[in-house]
Amino acid sequence: MTALVNVIVMLGMLVIVPLGLRLVPGPEPGAVRRLWPLLALPGAVSLWLPRGALATALAAVYALATAALALHAPARLRRTRSLAPPEIAVLTALVAPAVAGVALVAERSGRELLGFDLEILALTVPHFHFAGFAAALVAGLVCRSARGATGRFAALSVPAGTLLVLAGYFTGDWVELAGAVLLTAGMWAVALLTWRDVRTGRAERLIRRLLGVSAAVLVATMLLALSWALGEATGLPHPSLTWMAATHGLGNALGFALCSLAALLRLAEKTT
């Protein structure tokens, strides 16, 4: 599982976050966006090194990059003075990688953090790149494109569900299950809006296909997340973490995050 999770995390660090930062509506984190590839590379290298001082130092470089991105959120809020649902989703996306950065430093140092073992810390890193950053950003962008109650629900429930899952790490499996339910509902709303509103009427076939794949993948991957959280809370049979990484994790990374961000970026380029 470790190698697969590392590949997924590398995709998040080196591809998903840079793609997403190009889609952040203005004011954009320009300096952080330009320096991101240089700052993310040490974090990616740290994944493959034995735990210790060198891996921790390289992970810390990446954590500083995520902290700089997170600091853009309050600066953005001061400039926009908006807490509309799409803006809340974008602010969540800017802050989420910092959680992954802290978890990465702790895991690479071989030290448990706040009572969480190394396996949970390792899985926190991809979760806050994809559920925290990519999903929140896409929800905010979809809400801007497909206005209405469903869009507002998606833009609010994805950040709220991600934060509730994080709270469940501290308070117990039932809170984590509630977060998984809310996050799944929000992601399914994103899938519905992507399929129904954002995907339709676009002239370019590639954009339609990428958005269609991202919407379809979300239905399956979030059902897996829901079944895992339910099993953890109730003791019912559920997929193993290895299986979840190979299905839910890989599906969300490639099928949802990469396809949706690539399509939305292409769409933005065609409309400018």
Automatic annotation (TrEMBL):
What does the UniProt keyword field contain?
Answer: Membrane, Transmembrane, Transmembrane helix
Per the UniProt record, which residue ranges are transmembrane? Answer: 6-24, 55-75, 87-106, 118-141, 153-171, 177-198, 210-230, 250-268
- A Pfam family reported for this protein in Swiss-Prot or TrEMBL: YndJ
InterPro entries, alphabetically?
A: YndJ-like (IPR025450)
Is Transmembrane helix set as a keyword in this record?
yes
Instruction: State what protein this is by name.
Output: YndJ family transporter
